[in-house]
Amino acid sequence: MTRTYTAAVAGASGYAGGELVRLLLGHPSFEVGPLAAGSSEGRRVADLHPQLSPLADRAFVATDVDVLAQSDVVFLALPHGESGSIAAALPPGTLVVDLGADHRLADPEAWSRYYGGSHSGTWTYGMPELGDQRAEIARATRIANPGCYPTGVILGLAPLLAAGLVEPDDVVVVAASGTTGAGRKPSDALLASSVMGQLSPYKVGGVHQHTPEIEQALSGAAGEQVTVSFTPVLAPMPRGILATTTARLSEGVTTEELQAVLHAAYFDEPFVTALPNGSWPQTGATLGANSVHLQVAGDQHAGRAVVVSAIDNLVKGAAGQALQNANLALGLPETAGLTAIGVAP
């Protein structure tokens, strides 16, 4: 008989938390345990997540470590800087997957510079398709889920750096994200009247908090320091990320070579698709899916590789990848409860 695991979610009232609960409800080996939400304690789950109709009679509970610890798996879908203290109080044997940034960075100085406050330590980085991470995740009880922007950027460029097809010292990323990437907390910048009908850059000039995470993972792939200039853009859509990453081509490298390396890297991956020549990623194609769509071209005029990636920021960029990591850590089929098939139109 297949074992059933109980999953608790802290931060369940947020967008990523709600998406995670949706995926857990469809998972054959999980049952939904405590749904914690500090400021929404006592409110009905369906008041904030009307899509979660099976939980219409459930209410959010307080974020209490003793309550969370009663579950087999604890997912922390909390704002950056809030996971560390809760994770430290959970039993060592409990599987914990942190969807926040608290445990992603290896450099405490980078944490302080981009996030502020004390560094909570470094956990296993939960990107299964990156290098040897799948084996590391399978052995872990503490997993740091990657950020949404880093997921598409890293998976698109890492194989090219590892193969020496592009140079590490001049990587430029411009990526557009839907409004859910900013979280559920209301602000004037996220009002429909401010967002609809325009694109707007934010945190420009190397200050976005995902910069050191992208550099850390890409440097590991390249075997040397990678420098990234990252400009995020707010797009008038609820969810999805389209990232365009460019890097200087190594001498003589062609589009065909770039595409061959990308296809070889992800040929057997269930959730990463290197598209056929002539096809380019679209956010709509990854909507609701735990998938990454990739394409690359060699711009011979400018001497740069151009990699485009599309993901759903709430699924492969957050909740879906967290569930993928939990599957690996528990010895379940990696694809359980997940799909690579998007919803369109």
Question: Strand order of the main beta sheet, please?
Answer: 8-9-7-10-13-12-11
CATH class (first level) name of the largest domain: Alpha Beta
Question: What would CATH call the homologous superfamily of the largest domain?
Answer: Dihydrodipicolinate Reductase, domain 2
Percent of residues in helical segments? 25-40%
Order of helices and strands: EHEHHEHEHEHEHEHEHEEHEEEH
What topology emerges from the helices and strands here?
Layout lengths: L4 E6 L4 H11 L4 E7 L8 H4 L16 H4 L4 E4 L6 H7 L5 E4 L9 H7 L9 E2 L7 H6 L3 E3 L3 H15 L3 E12 L14 H4 L4 E2 L9 H12 L5 E7 L6 E9 L5 H12 L5 E3 L17 E8 L4 E8 L3 H16 L15
Parallel strand pairs: 1-2, 1-3, 3-4, 4-6, 5-6, 7-9, 11-12
Antiparallel strand pairs: 7-10, 8-9, 10-13, 12-13
Properties at a glance:
345 residues, alpha/beta, Dihydrodipicolinate Reductase, domain 2, 2 domains, 7-stranded mixed sheet, 13 strands
Q: How does this structure look, described?
A:
- The chain has 345 residues and is an alpha/beta fold.
- The protein has two domains: 5-145 and 316-330, 3-Layer(aba) Sandwich (Rossmann fold); 149-313, Dihydrodipicolinate Reductase, domain 2 (2-Layer Sandwich), CATH 3.30.360.10.
- It is 28% helix and 22% strand.
- The protein contains eleven helices and 13 strands.
- It has helices spanning 15-25, 45-48, 65-68, 83-89, 108-114, 133-138, 148-162, 192-195, 211-222, 255-266, 315-330; strands spanning 5-10, 30-36, 73-76, 95-98, 124-125, 142-144, 166-177, 200-201, 228-234, 241-249, 272-274, 292-299, 304-311.
- The strands form two sheets. A seven-stranded mixed β-sheet has the order 8-9-7-10-13-12-11. Strands 2-1-3-4-6-5 form a six-stranded parallel β-sheet.
- Helix 7 runs parallel beside helix 9.
- It is globular and about 60 Å long.
- The chain starts with a strand and ends in a 15-residue tail after the last helix.
- The mean pLDDT is 95.
